[in-house]
Amino acid sequence: MNLKPLILASASPRREQLMNQIGLEFSVIPSDVIEDFSLALPPEAFTEHWAREKAKYVAENNPDTMVIGADTIVVLDKKILGKPKNIMDSFSMLQSLSGRTHEVITGMSILNISFGIDFTFNERTYVSFKTLSDSDIHYYIDNYNPLDKAGSYGIQDWFSVHIRQIEGCYFNVMGLPLSSFFSHYRSLTNYLNKP
Amino acid sequence: MNLKPLILASASPRREQLMNQIGLEFSVIPSDVIEDFSLALPPEAFTEHWAREKAKYVAENNPDTMVIGADTIVVLDKKILGKPKNIMDSFSMLQSLSGRTHEVITGMSILNISFGIDFTFNERTYVSFKTLSDSDIHYYIDNYNPLDKAGSYGIQDWFSVHIRQIEGCYFNVMGLPLSSFFSHYRSLTNYLNKP
Predict the structure, then answer these.
(1) I need a labelling partner for A133 at 20 to 30 A (CA). Which of A179, B15, B88, B128 fits?
(2) Which chain B residue has its CA at the smallest distance from A124's CA?
(3) Which residue ranges form the domains of chain A, and what is each CATH number?
(4) What is the chain A residue with the closest CA to B166?
């Protein structure tokens, strides 16, 4: 396998799509890190911790390559919602989000071990749902796959009809805050390319 | 051609994609209406006027079918920006939007002549750009096609790296406010299906 100069350490097809959207050349190598939701950290630090763990896992075998890790969570009433465990969990998550505003936080890590780059940041977006009826929730769970998504919804699929408004970076809700990521990535790359 | 029970009177591939995203069955029949930017109306009324003209154009030949028209504009300092006329116009539009917040307004029309449905609404989203360098603008114009986009940018392409934040419906910026459209469409459809 010919490695590109950048590795995305994530199995998320949405992150891959977003990296393609901004024209980056990269390889995908998902990490085997399993997120431990019992880790007692504030939400921002929690996402940065797991983003860094994911990047580090892949970077250790690829020390000369820039590796990107990301972790996205949904926060409601200061409680972190990860991916739902099962259909019932998915139902109650969506019910708890109905008619309210929650936060989506993505932590990101940019690592290049050989060059000593170990940078993390996080981005927050506010998302407001319309009120969901039970039949809306059933329809969504039956026809889409909410189990692989933090907070149990995908802003880019049919669920978009229930998003009343967002405040912040839209792509952050999809799992990768494009605008801030690109700024950081570009300055780090410029730094590496300096003579 | 077998007509679906819903017609999108728009040539925009982005609107078609959004309608597909929420699982609607529809046919596409673009109107031949040419927007006249000299029309002296406030921005919201301007978009609703042209959305309705587009829908009406197609509905007149399809009186029994629900027809949807849409019109999206960018507003900066109370001035309406449509699609750029040429590359120079595109450059100066993007320069004027750099580092600032502008409004994107989409007007929508839902028409069904036989049933007397003639409904219009509009939705506004605030979009904040990062500061763009001249080379960022040149790169974008050279590699993408800004000429067919109101305000000269596509939020869903490479340009997304320059969107600092949005406030409101993201899909509205792509040309179709999914959440509010779906609400209105669903209530009108329920009304039609009442015995």
Answers:
(1) B15
(2) B165
(3) 6-190 (3.90.950.10)
(4) A168
